[in-house]
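user: Please supply your own:

assistant:
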Amino acid sequence: MPRISNLAQHNFNLFSTLNTQTRLFTAQTEVSTGDKSQDFAGIDRDTGRLVNIKNELERVRQFQDNIETTDRRLDLMGFSLGRIEEVARDFRSTLLNAQNGATADTIGLKELSQGLLDQVVDLLNVRDESRYLFAGGIIQTKPVDLNNGTYVPPTVPPFPAAADTDWYNGDNVIQEARVDEGFSVSYGVTADSNALEKIIRSFDAISEITFTSPPTAAELQAVRDSITLLTEAIEQNTVGEKTIGELFGQVELDRKLVNAVNVKHDNFLVFAETNIADIQQVNVAEAVATLNFEQVTLEASFATLARVQQLSLNDFLR
């Protein structure tokens, strides 16, 4: 027990030891968690800035989620459009060859056209999870259905001159994605776009012809009309209407736009995470050094406290 003669020294040493214990506990917590404090009280001066940065970080991450979803959908749409263009070009080449003699019948043009038409329909009915991508705003319904009870296949020849999109079950809504504060991107293509309608009409018309051998003049004229329509859809569409390649380019441009915005968000994430780390996290090397120092100090404090408790008045009078 401390005596009157050493009470003041004892109290001072005890106070110092308790403070050292507190600092040691703080250092241990910093080293084990990597954080400067377990609550806002420990970073009082930076609390407001930290909250603002974290709120902005959450908004940016939501924008990036929107961008990821949009990019995935555009990628699927771009694949479909690119493949449809390939199919249309190959079929046009086949039709050009089919104008010679009995070729239309011998190469099974009717069956080939039906098979390619089925491919195009499948490509336009592509989904991202449960959402049909080429249906505009009616995302739960297949946009292209040639057996929907409304569409009537043409009787060929003659080749159908007028557009007919009764097979389209979507609408004209263009999707939007919010990719930044106050900035939304309109994106996508609907299956009833002019170039796509021409491709479907070309395939569908040829699939309805039962070719004779040799083909009749009317049958050959239908083949030529189909070639003309495919050429418009592929590379020479009417004024104000996009070709299939231009539709693909539009989708790719939208992808570049949303990914350019995403680069900005990535840069902000680096900035935000760096600042949050500066506010919240300790310098590990410094924290370990502080921990070691406080441990040595505490041991010395205990030794001093024990020594003082052993002192008597005689020790002071020697």
In short: Strands lie at 127-128, 131-132, 175-180, 183-187.
